[in-house]
Amino acid sequence: MAFRFHIAAAILALVFTIVHASDPSPLQDFCVAVPDANAGGVFVNGKICKDPKLVEPEDFFFQGLNKPGSTAKPLGSNVTQVNVNQIPGLNTLGVSLARLDFAPYGLNPPHIHPRATEVLFVLEGTLVVGFVTSNPGMNMKNKLFTKVLNPGDVFVFPQGLIHFQFNQGETDAVAFAGLGSQNPGVITIANAVFGSDPPISPDVLTKAFQVGNDVIKKLQSQFWWDNNYP
User: Fold this and answer.
1) Could you tell me which residues come within 8 angstroms of residue 209 by beta carbon, excluding any fewer than 6 positions away?
2) pLDDT at residue number 11
3) Omega of the bond prior to 202 within 30 degrees of 0, cis?
């Protein structure tokens, strides 16, 4: 397992060297983010830059990505994010990564990353993945691009497009993702549409989905799980 983990890390490092980040290129060596709005400094990409004289190696460090996240939840999946909120030194650098763990038949449900393209590498197990194109011309359907991935396979999800990953096997699956933003963001479609606070008017959703009000009420009343964790 340790050897395979190092292979995954090496491939993601290679991806990072060739990715064209979606975030603006930095104009300085680094801008380590600090959470304290009263700390002074300059805002860059929504974060305050730490005084370079106070920057430490820990500002560029994260440990524990070799440990699986808990998949004991209804979706059967867990996404461990490693972005600017976990590594302050990523601020302005335009990259981040994540570990994805799947129980048998676990799902990372349809979602989008509004600020990043994603490159997925499968380390263990078999995943069915796919993304859907943006709205095409009149009387045309959105096209689904889908693929079955095995260990060693890589798949790209373009920025801002709805995509998913599903473990179709009877064993656990593990994947790692590189993303072209230090803060890619994630919008889980079902959670956002049916679990917003305050809720979207049923009048809007019944019209949009062409279903009865009772269906919308049922969907809005249930708890929508989030499988993304820092």
Assistant:
1) 215, 216
2) 59
3) no
Query: For the chain, percent helix, then strand, then coil, each to nearest 5?
Result: 20, 30, 50
**Any known ligand binding at 113?**
yes
Q: What is the DSSP string of 44-103?
A: ETTEEEPPGGG--GGGG----TTSPPP--STT-EEEEEESTTT-GGGTTT--EEEEEEE-
118: annotated binding-site residue?
A: yes
CB 131 within 8 A of CB 158: yes
Please tell me the pTM assigned to this model. Answer: 0.84
Please tell me whether residue 11 adopts helix, strand or coil conformation: helix
The answer on whether 6 is annotated among ligand-binding residues is no
Indicate the domain borders of the chain: 74-185, 188-229
Q: Is 20 annotated as a binding residue?
A: no
Closest CA to 150 of 181, 180, 116, 120: 120
Low-confidence ranges of the chain (pLDDT < 70): 1-28, 36-46, 229-230
Q: Quick one: pLDDT at residue 225?
A: 78
Contact call for residues 31 and 44 (beta carbons, < 8 A): yes
Q: What pLDDT is attached to residue 18?
A: 45
The two tokens of residue 141 are 């359907």
Q: Tokens 């524990």 appear where?
A: 64
**Does 111 count as an annotated binding residue?**
yes
pLDDT, residue 220, reads 94
Please provide the CATH number assigned to the domain covering 74-185: 2.60.120.10
At residue 201, the pLDDT reads 96
Amino acid at 153: D
